Amino acid sequence: MEEFDIPIFKKIYELYRNFYGFRNSVPKLDRYTLWQKCENILLETLENILLASQMPKAEKLPILEKASLTLNLFRIFVRLAKEVKAIDNKKYVLLQENTDEVGRMLGGWIKSTKDS
Q1: What's the number of CA atoms in the CB half-sphere (13 Å) around residue 41?
Q2: Residue range 58-75: average pLDDT?
Q3: Is the N end or the C end of the chain the one with fewer CB atoms within 10 Å?
Q4: Strand, helix or coil at 21?
C-alpha cells in the first residue's frame, strides 16, 4: 500500500490516533457534540489528503485547499474544546503541535502544487 507512504498521510493518521485515544477522557456531555464534530472534521481532512494523493496534479489544488480549510476548522474546535474544559491543556498542546505540523506539510504541498 504505497499510497499510504506519503509523510503527510502518516502524520494526519498519527494525529487521528492521538485524538481518538483521548475520547474516553472527554466528558460524556461533550463527547457526542463538540468532540464528535472535531472527529468528523478530522476524518474529512484525512480523507481529502488521501484523495489529493490519488488525483492527477491538475485536480489536486481544490482538494488540498479544502483539506487546509477543514484542518483550520479542526484547530478552532480543538481550541474550543480546551476552553470549555472538554480536554486538558496537555492534550490540547499535543493535538495543536500535531495539527501545526500537518498544516505546515499541507501548506508546502499546496505551494508546490501552485508553483508547478
Answers
A1: 19
A2: 97
A3: N
A4: helix
